[in-house]
Amino acid sequence: MTKPHVKLHIPGPVEVSADTFCAMSQPMIGHRGTGFQDLYANIQPKLRQVLNTQNPVFLSTSSAWGVMEAAVRNLVGKKVLNCCCGAFSDKWLDVSKRCGKEAEALKVDWGRPILPEQIDAKLKTGQFDAITLVHNETSTGVMNPLADIAAVMKKYPDVMFVVDTVSSMTAIKIDTDALGIDVMLAGVQKAWALPPGLAIFAVSDRALKKAETIPGRGYYFDFLEFKANHDKNMTPSTPSIPHIYGLQFKLDQMLAEGLDNRYARHLKMAQMVRDWAKKNGFELFPQAGYESVTLTCVKNNRNIDVAKFQKAIKDKYKVLIDGGYGQIKGKSFRIGHMGDETPDTIAQLLPMLDDCLKGL
Ligand SMILES: *Cc1c(COP(=O)(O)O)cnc(C)c1O
Known about the structure:
The protein is an alpha/beta fold. The protein has helices spanning 18-24, 34-51, 64-75, 87-98, 116-123, 146-153, 176-179, 205-212, 223-230, 241-257, 259-279, 306-317, 343-358; strands at 7-8, 57-60, 80-84, 103-107, 130-134, 136-137, 142-143, 160-164, 183-187, 199-203, 283-284, 295-299, 319-320, 332-336. Helix 12 (306-317) crosses helix 13. The longest helix has 21 residues, at 259-279. Bound molecules: pyridoxal-5'-phosphate (PLP).
């Protein structure tokens, strides 16, 4: 773990600390025994605290997409509105259709946020019984105005509110229950700073009731299977137990830091990287006012050779940044600043970027 390696400053997966790997390396236990039940029961209140919810928090041995697909399969009866503002949210439309669901896009240009009034206009038609929203669109660095959108969703209590917080969960306060979020999900390789392979999701009572009415939920991702097993402090199938040990360690670490301190740390890091970009003559890719706190998507308005910049940083400093996602590859680059990163580690990173920028 501590052997020399390229440090990840991409927006996921992110760098995982040696003590996290250490916490994951414990003897295996049977997933139907009291050892596991105790572990599961121990982390539940902490998960609820970190996620600001009284809902059960389920653990899926899959990446986030497993639960993103599951939400559609469990909750869409009539038609789903997929809010599309970047690669991940665009893909959710495709996934909804592949699940055989009626689906429609609410589409904005990359770099723009989804606005509450746009959702209101669509939901007013009465066609939809679920919406999907990516809170922090990792491909564009846009953070959507979740609280404002949630306020609109209050007008539509029968419409399931499914929110991907893959790259924002734990980095910014999300008042899950107060916002009325029915499914809030994340993979652990982003702000949780665990290795990929586990997804965490909180499901409302309303959503569990709705799932009972939806056929074709399958087995592996059936929310009702998760709930039935949760009630016994278990998961439907053998979970990635090392991940759950790691999760327990991360939860304890987060609660020791204090959640407000954690949120402030992420905001501070974001401000440092945004300032760095502006100081160097770059603009930010997201529309002003909607910038992510966990990653910065820098617009390549200076027209630098992004691939060369990225390679220089990797070769000289053994640090990996991202060269832009999908249709904005090369037209932008992204720097992740989440998880275990701190203002100190960001302060070490920025001079490396300066140096490589000069050498282009
Ligand atoms: C990374 C990411 C995903 C996909 O996560 P996987 O773990 O690869 O399934 C989905 N949504 C957002 C916003 C992401 O950042």
